[in-house]
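[[Per-residue structure]]
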Amino acid sequence: MSLKKMIEEKFPQQTNEDWEQSAEKALKGKSLETLSRNTYENIKLKPLYSREDLETGALSQFPGAEDFRRGSYAAGYLSEEWKVAQKISASSSEELSDKLLAAIKTGQTALAFEPEQLKNPEKISLAVGELYERYPFSVDAGRNQHLIMAGLGKVKEREKVSGYVAADPLAIAAADTLNDRSIDELYETLNQTMSDAAINLPSLKTIMVNSAVYHNSGANAVQELALALATGVNHLQYLLDKGKSLEQILSKMVFKFAVGSNFFMEIAKLRAARVLWGNVAEAFGAEGDSKKMVISAETSFFTKSAYDSYVNMLRAGNEAFAAVLGGIQYLHVSPYNDPERAKSPFSERIARNTQLILREEAHLLKVSDPAGGSWYIEHLTNELCSKSWELFLEIEEQGGMADALQTGWIQDQITQVLEKKKKDVHTRKQSIIGTNIYANLDEKPLQAEMETVQNSKSDLKTIPQVRLSESFEGLRNLSERLKGKGIRPEAGLICLGALKDHKARADFISGFLAPGGVGAVNSGSVNNPEDAEAFIQKTNCRHYFICGSNEQYESMAVPLIKQLKEAFPSAEIYLAGLPEEGKKDEYKNAGIGGYIHVKSDCYGTLLNMLNEMEAASNGQ
């Protein structure tokens, strides 16, 4: 073929129908619906998206144009870089000063720290020196806001203090177990702080809408967005009633979002947030740039695990990438050892360098809304906008954010989603690498803190900050407790026939047991009931799993189980795999304890096993 002909050659035009026909052919008769799934937000994800999935059939705007879904600036991060705002832990102003200087030398671009760790927050002026003249603050001040603001009032050039030192009264009341003030008291403090800052620190933002506390309690993206809107409206209404102007309030607001592991959903969440808040601000009478949203993002606490903790680096990297593509102004990437609420120079460096890689090596500072134009992301953005707005209106019908928190309605809504997420993790429908799948029995975990659910001193039902892996980590703790009593948590695998006959199911059971810290003792090839009896006699485990091929199950499983139960009545015998319905009565009559298969409740099964082992050790 000549070059000219190659240039003139065209591929035939393909339609969605052509793709569907090819896909159905590849699925060998299965419906395309089998490739679709529903998210925790009740959004149906399709296998293919196209222009037809957008209401307008085309993108309606450029980056920087209203409704700001594509970012607040036309040139994206070329107009305003996102700030590297890694939170620094320090107990004294001297330590904080040293750490801030060191962080800035290695890429930090904002003054970020954890105020609850600082013993004397009112001495913050000593810690920041003259850094505040060049770098903005990025501080979720919480209940310590008034102390930090008092300290910042002592700096020489207060008009140069920028960024945010902000607080969200509703988030403090709902999630801070050390809080001892009511919502009204917290709001009054915020109002007074805002008034003082308008005079003393005019360039500093002081009002936060913190949706991260809901994310880290298990909320889905729709709930996070709706709760952020409802919180923002609550702030606006309260402060307007106190005589503040709309323009003044909006200019002092910052929104804090936690970014989870569902990559495309999280990108769409941040884009939808700007659209939704623009609508709210416009409804209050705002115009132009005053409808823009300032977003401070952080990687999720909810998704991190104590086991195989280095995987947390990958999780945080994925989440940081999603945050940057979604559009942010500030970003904190959590260190991999965040579950134990401790940091090390190494973990802090890796977290900070994650941002530097995104900035300098992935060149994300050089692009404007790279996610824009993706039919999938644009469709997700629209879906989140629609569903979040509906939930926001429902919250308003409950009396608004404050009332919905006080009645426990919001807590109940989040709990329902959390239970669905837990169920998927327990059945391993959702994988947590190193925790409920590919678990390492010999690994030493992070010394993670698990928050005790308790009521704060306010009048609200506490919204606990949890991690999705905690239930399996509890199993590992129980396993370690048994080891401390001299009991090695183990189960026996009765492997029928040759290696090729039992290996697949034996490997599956070994992987099924490991998340609970239970080791698998392999029998080797078992060819008759006597071999199995000898193995049980030798190992003396409480739980045994028969592993073999379907053909072997058909020929020998039922009589084998019956004989083993007669010889060892206290032993629990399980079958690897799920037999046909017509066979289950035979297995039940033989004494089978249960069936372990890909849809089994891994957590529930292991919890029962470990409890039975512990009861046996106590002579019960």
